[in-house]
Amino acid sequence: MERSRAIPFQRMSTADVSSKSSPIIEFREVGYSLGDQSLLQDISFSVSEGETLILLGRSGAGKTTALKLINRLLTPTYGVIKVRGRSTTSWDPISLRRSIGWVIQESGLFPHYSVAGNIAVVPKLEQWPDNRIHARVSELMQLVGLEPNLRERYPHQLSGGQRQRVGVARALAADPSILLMDEPFGALDPLTRAELQKEFLDLQRRLRKTVVMVTHDLREALLLGTRIALFDSGKLVGTFTSREFANSQDERVREYVNPFREAALPI
After folding, report:
1. Which residues contact 127 (CB under 8 A, 6 or more apart)?
2. Residue 9 pLDDT more than 70?
3. How many angstroms separate the Cα of 129 from the Cα of each of 120, 152, 172, 174, 219?
4. DSSP letter string over the chain?
5. Torsion angle defined by CA atoms of residues 214, 198, 166 and 62, in that order, rounded to the nearest 10 degrees
6. Model confidence pLDDT, tens digit, residues 20-55
């Protein structure tokens, strides 16, 4: 009997992303070295507006390095990275980072800021008026499923899922067109992780952000991504739709897929 390839939640189809839109993020033959150690080699890919590209790979494969190059936390050793048609090296780094939302594992919240204070960080840096900030915080708390009575609580008073919701709200605060997410659900228990993955899909269908997300979890990649970019030892194996990935004959792809098939898990 043929095994089902269904997954618990409906993925966003690649047909939902316009094939005619120009790339909002481009890597052109990019490399990055730290001293004598080469962390990325000759990486080229692009991300279209409204797409969710998953960077998949083992620990140390180069996924987070690639992510940090997008908002210029790192600068490429060679090659060109473009964001909205401009090389990252031609952007003012502060302006670039404020225009891109950033979500990390364990949310990275400021422990001495309240929920409202954490969400309001970028709007305050951008000198929004207080009434606009207050309204935006309320809007985002509702959007990510946070109750109003949590507004003045501090991160240590929140559950893991609540902290991660605050992290997403903070990333969305200034309405960036791009979100970068580094293992955003990796530290959560399985039930909370599944719940937030579903909420992410619902949110993405509504907001249509351009998302680049790092994960080492194949099922998360298949669930959340419109495409998957597989990294291996600092190199890009290729970019794939979910169907292409599941059926690829590349040995490096099969290393991910085969354990699921052998365990009769849906992919």
Report:
1. none
2. no
3. 11, 19, 17, 13, 42
4. -PPP---SSPPPPGGGS-TTSPEEEEEEEEEEEETTEEEEEEEEEEEETT-EEEEE--TTSSHHHHHHHHTTSS--SEEEEEETTEEGGGS-HHHHHHTEEEEETTTT--TTS-HHHHHTHHHHHTT--HHHHHHHHHHHHHHTT--GGGTT--GGGS-HHHHHHHHHHHHHTT--SEEEEESTTTTS-HHHHHHHHHHHHHHHHHH--EEEEEES-HHHHHHH-SEEEEEETTEEEEEE-HHHHHH---HHHHHHHHHHHHTT---
5. 0
6. 568 999 999 999 999 899 999 999 999 999 999 999
* Statement: the pTM of the whole predicted model exceeds 0.85: yes
Query: Which tokens in the block code for residue 154?
Result: 């501090």
Residue 118 banded pLDDT, cuts 50, 70, 90? very high
pLDDT category, 8, cuts 50, 70, 90? very low
The two tokens of residue 28 are 């052109």
pLDDT, average across residues 76-94: 95
- The per-residue pLDDT for range 136-190, each reduced to its tens digit, is 999 999 999 999 999 999 999 999 999 999 999 999 999 999 999 999 888 788 8
Q: Which pair of structure tokens corresponds to residue 67? A: 């992510």
Token pair belonging to 7: 């997954």
Q: What whole-number distance in Å separates Cα of residue 137 and Cα of residue 152?
A: 11
Placement of tokens 């990796």 in the chain: 186
Beta-bridge mates of residue 214: 55, 182
C-alpha to C-alpha distance for 266 and 95, rounded to whole angstroms: 43
Token reading at 209: 């952000």
**Which residues have a Cβ under 8 Å from the Cβ of 96 and sit 6 or more positions away?**
71, 72, 83, 88
